[in-house]
Every structure is written in C-alpha cells, then in structure tokens.
Amino acid sequence: MITTVPPAPSTLPLPLPLVRLRLAPRGVLPRRTDGVWWPHSRDLLTQLPQMLAALPSAWGDITGVTVDAAAWSAAPGRMFVANQVVRLHKAPASPHAPDRVVLLSAGLGRWDLLVIPPDATEGTAALLTATALDDRVPDTDGEVRAPFPAAARGPRGRVGSAGRETRAPRW
Predict the structure, then answer these.
(1) Residue numbers of the domain that contains 42
(2) Is residue 4 part of a domain?
(3) 10 Å Cβ neighbour count for 85?
(4) Residue 116 domain-assigned?
(5) DSSP letters along the chain, please?
(6) What are phi and psi of 80, to 5 degrees?
(7) Of 1, 45, 110, 115, whose CB has the highest number of CB atoms within 10 Å?
(8) How many domains does the chain have?
(9) Angstrom distances, CA of residue 18 to CA of 12, 38, 61, 72
(10) What is the pLDDT of residues 106-158, one digit of tens each?
(11) Within a domain: 52
C-alpha cells in the first residue's frame, strides 16, 4: 500500500508583491505629478516602506511623507524605514488634487505621486497612469501641445532630469 503525505507547510515567508510604481519620464520642465503609485492596500505601514525602497537613489533619503488622512489606515507620526526615520504627515484631502503622496528629501526636493486606489482594475490604473504622466493635451483644433508654457509652471525645488529612472518593476 502506498501512502502519500501532504507536503509540509513552507516555513519561508511569502514573497512581497511587486511595487506598482511608475515615475514620469525624464524631462526639462517641472511637472505637477512626478509619478503614479498603485498600492496593494491602504495599510500605510506595509505599503510605504516597499514604495520608498523602489525609488531611484538619486531622490536621496526620503525624510517626510504627506498623505491624505482619510484615505489611509492609522499610522504613527514617524516610521523607521531602511535605517532612517521618516516623518508621516496626515493632511485633509484637497478638493483641487486627487489622492496624492508627497515625498520630501532634505536638500534634494519634493516629489508628488498620484495614488491609484488599491481596488482599481488594471484598465483603470493604466488609464489613470497614462493621463497623469502625459504632458500632452489635445488643443481645440486636434493638435497636441504642452499643457502650460514653461514660464507659467515655475520652479518647484526639485531635482532636475537626472535620476528619473526607476528601479521598480513596471506593471
């Protein structure tokens, strides 16, 4: 008689899901949105460290993060991420801006990431990503043009075009 034994449960931790992060392409003009982040949940304590680890090294150490208070689970005012303290600021949502995460790096600048809701479909996420990262806007006659003249945008204290590549996998 042959007896089969069910395999023993694995003692290895489950692999973390890929970070769904897309950064804006390199450019000479400042942008309103520097990237798009599609977290797997609204648990800031698990999602934020993964996203911060996927950022380009040229962005430096992120020391401050501002999130929409109503959109995220409870979190402390500070987190220890990658051997450094990151201050968390929870602000009320702005009616003029969709859900965003603002990243601050001392001495290097500020980056604004649009947050796609975790329960969004792939199609919705792809559309939101394309819309957020595309600087081209159709004109009334069908021509495609930049949304704002360079002078109207003004500086925002960001790192220039260097370091815009991402180490994160693209979805």
Answers:
(1) 33-134
(2) no
(3) 11
(4) yes
(5) -----PPPPP-SPPPPPPP-EEEPPP-SS--S--EEE--SSS-HHHHHHHHHHTS-GGG----EEEEETTTS----SEEEETTEEEEEEEEPPPTTS-SEEEEEETTTEEEEEEE--TT--HHHHHHHHHHHH---EE-TTS-EE-SS-HHHH---S---STT----SPP-
(6) -100, 110
(7) 115
(8) 1
(9) 18, 10, 21, 20
(10) 888 899 999 999 999 999 999 999 988 875 544 445 444 444 333 333 333 33
(11) yes
CB 144 within 8 A of CB 138: yes
Buried b (16+ CB within 10 A) or exposed e, 130-169: eebbebeeeeeeeeeeeeeeeeeeeeeebbeeebbebebe
In a domain, 148, yes or no: no
pLDDT at 6 over 60: no
Cβ contacts of 140 within 8 Å, gap of 6 or more: none
Task: Report d(CA 117, CA 126) in Å as an integer.
Answer: 12
pTM over 0.85: no
Measured CA to CA, the distance from residue 63 to residue 79 in angstroms comes to: 10
